[in-house]
Amino acid sequence: MSLPPEKASELKKLIHNHLLRMDIHGKIREVLADTVRDGQRSASQSVSEADFLRALQSRGIIDDVMKDLSFPQTNGKLEPAAKPDTHFAEKEITHLKKSNINPSRRYLCLKVLGGKAFLEHLQEPEHLPGQVCSTFTLYLHFRNQRFRSKPVPCACEPSLEEGFLLELHRDGVDYGLKNSLLLTPTTLVSSYFLDWRTVLSSPSGKTCFAIELMGVGSECKVPAGVLTVSLELCPPLTETLSPDVVSTQQSLERNRTAEKERLFLVYAKQWWREFLEIRPSHQSKMVKIFAQDENGVNRPVCSYVRVLRAGRLLESPRQAARFVSLMAQEKAPVVGGGGKQEQWCTLLAFLCRGKGDCEDHATLLCSLLLGFGLDAYVCVGTKAKAVPHTWVLTRGYDGIITFWESMTAHRYLHQTIDPDAPPLSPQPNPSSPYRTVGCVFNHQTFLANCQPSDAVERCVFDFQNPSRWKAMSEEALKSVCAPGSTTSLPPVPPLCAPSLDAAAASNHLELEMRFLISEHRKDHELATVWDDHLSYLLSSALSTYELERCTGVSCGSEEFQDALRRAMADGHTFKGFPILFLHRNARRAFATCLRSSFCQEIVGCRGDSVRLAVRVRVFVYPENACAVWLMLACKYRSVL
To answer: Where is the CEP76 C2 domain (predicted)?
Structure first.
């Protein structure tokens, strides 16, 4: 019986997934290890393929494989029991769940009916079945509700067809619906703010229209594509509004927003002139009042910070800092030369991408620390070699100043150097990597550094002293930065609980690492024997490493060292290599490990009674941010 090429590819993928679920590689390794351990063959005698198949059959492994692998017959043709996706490979697809509709509430049903004119993908080649390809994913935020569509292959006319049921709350009004279109791997394509109130004037309670998505950053004026969407109220209104009423209300809100922004701009210019009159040198200080978001809109920097509470997802400020540090760093792309592209991301865009620049990390960390009740501010300044940088500052109730590096979760205690102290008096050594600070801000405060020197080591962070810090009017900031003050202000999305199974992800990645190490040693004509007990013991060490990153306190290493000594026989040597990753790509991780000479010694270990061990621990945080700890180890008998 012959199969067409696409069916053959599907069949191969089905068999591969079945073998992976059975951990067939682990069972084969056990048979091989037992053969070597029992001394059934000498070192000079090779094991033939037929001998190895007989060994597998005697263990019943082949029978187990065939027993669970079923192919139901459909119309006389061989069909796999569960047809796999043939266009894209996405292991963490969020399946839509049926929602329980409360008849006492009203809902907004938003349907995406397709996309077109994504001209950047006009020449996208046709993907073969089972081939991994780039995909579009649509993210939506409406009040405290967040949704994610299934990924679809990138194309000029992508088949984006999804439905979302949004609950309309009675305790407030949210005029906009924020959505971001993302291109795997997590490249932001467009960010759009949709006003849904046009459906209020539809007699049928339904409306359908096309929205033009613009690019981001330097391409914010270039169309990225078009989405066709429909809106429907469930249940429909008993009395619809006049289209003139809706359009008039929208016009009034736009005019009110424009007037508030104009008045704030006039105030900011006057404030800046007053700041420059204090000292001419203030012109060179890093005082940033406005920042451009992904849509090319200039917004006050205070609007990027909000009081963000994580509920049960994060338990402490230090755990929040750890979570933010696991978001990857990526600078805004620049076409051609010219240096860094100026772009701060809205919170939703940053969370959906899972990566951003130091400004995005600092504003998110400051928002979370404010949610935990700390007096937190974002600092704008420079670090070594005059590189622009942002970080977070907290002021303790006792006046202690602590710097938080949002990229690494490191904390630094600030101690000011007294320039008027006698020459021989002891002075504190700078403990932080920061060199200058031009301004600090949070959701309701903006302060510019007007001290004679902007060097961090000489700064006094006494924000109530107007001779050291020039403050903006809180009322002026509130008029454009407070929640609900303007319709152009993006809403604050809640954090999403992790959907990733940490144990399953750890096991899967560990199996892949074992396979890669075995193949690597095989290429160097080395046998591989795994010590499962030693691998298990490494778990406590990896847990200790992550706990130390979260809390800054090291504990539990004594138990690991004691267990390790008990597991080591006399005359044996142990070597271990721990390393941290922010991704779950086994091949990338293994290639990174091999760049270390110490890791190469472990992977390529030669000697008497060599046993290898590998342990992977995936620690999952909100938004599926992951800290992936990997430890490679070996033990062998020392021979002089």
So the answer is: 100-237
In a domain, 493, yes or no: no
Q: Are both 411 and 267 inside the same structural domain? A: yes
C-alpha closest to that of 132 among 475, 637, 612, 585: 585
Reported residue count of the chain is: 640
* CATH code, domain with 363: 3.10.620
Report if residue 60 sits inside a domain. no
Q: Are 178 and 140 in contact (CB under 8 A)?
A: yes
Give the structural domain span for 359: 251-330+342-417+427-481
User: 223 and 273: one domain?
Assistant: no
Residue 245 dihedral angles phi and psi, to the nearest 5°? -65, -45
Q: What is the CATH number of the domain that holds 576?
A: 3.40.33.10
Domain count across the chain: 3
Under the banding of pLDDT at 50, 70 and 90, the label for residue 511 is very high
Cα dist from 428 to 350, 393, 425, 432, 437, whole Å = 37, 19, 10, 12, 18
Per-residue model confidence (pLDDT) at position 74: 41
What pLDDT is stored for residue 96 in this prediction? 43
CA distance 605 to 603: 6
Scan for tokens 């951003």, then name that residue: 356
Q: At residue 129, does pLDDT exceed 90?
A: no
**Both ends of the chain: CA-CA distance in Å?**
61
Same structural domain for residues 461 and 541? no
CA separation, residue 603 to residues 317, 498, 505, 593, 614 (Å): 38, 33, 23, 9, 10
Q: Is 592 helix (H, G, I), strand (E, B) or coil?
A: helix
Distance CA 212, CA 566 (A): 66
Residue 515: pLDDT above 90? yes
Three-class SS of residue 283? helix
Q: Distance between CA atoms of 490 and 487, rounded to whole angstroms?
A: 8
pLDDT at residue 165 tops 80 = yes
Which secondary structure element, helix H or strand E, spans residue 616, and what is its range?
A: strand 608-620
Same-domain status, 507 and 536: yes
Task: Report the SS3 class of residue 239.
Answer: coil
Please say if the pLDDT value at position 269 is more than 50. Answer: yes
Please report the pLDDT score of residue 89 as a whole number. 33
Categorise residue 284: left if φ over 0, alpha if ψ from -120 to 50, beta otherwise: alpha
Q: How confident is the model at residue 143 (pLDDT cuts 50, 70, 90)?
A: confident
Taking CA atoms, 128 is separated from 89, 131, 132, 161, 183, in Å, by: 12, 5, 9, 22, 19
Residue 469 to residue 503: CA distance in whole angstroms: 50
| Residue among 444, 432, 434 at smallest CA distance from 479 | 444
Rg (CA), the chain: 30
Whether 267 and 394 map to the same domain: the answer is yes
> What is the average pLDDT score of the chain?
85
Last residue of a domain, one of 241, 275, 303: 241
151 & 228 share domain? yes
Assigned domain for 400 exists? yes
Residue with tokens 């200058």: 436
Confidence of residue 83 (pLDDT cuts 50, 70, 90): very low
In a domain, 74, yes or no: no
* HSE of 21, CA atoms in CB hemisphere, 13 A: 10
Is the per-residue pLDDT at 278 higher than 90? yes
pLDDT digits (tens, 9 = 90+) for 196-234: 999 999 988 899 999 999 999 888 899 999 999 999 998
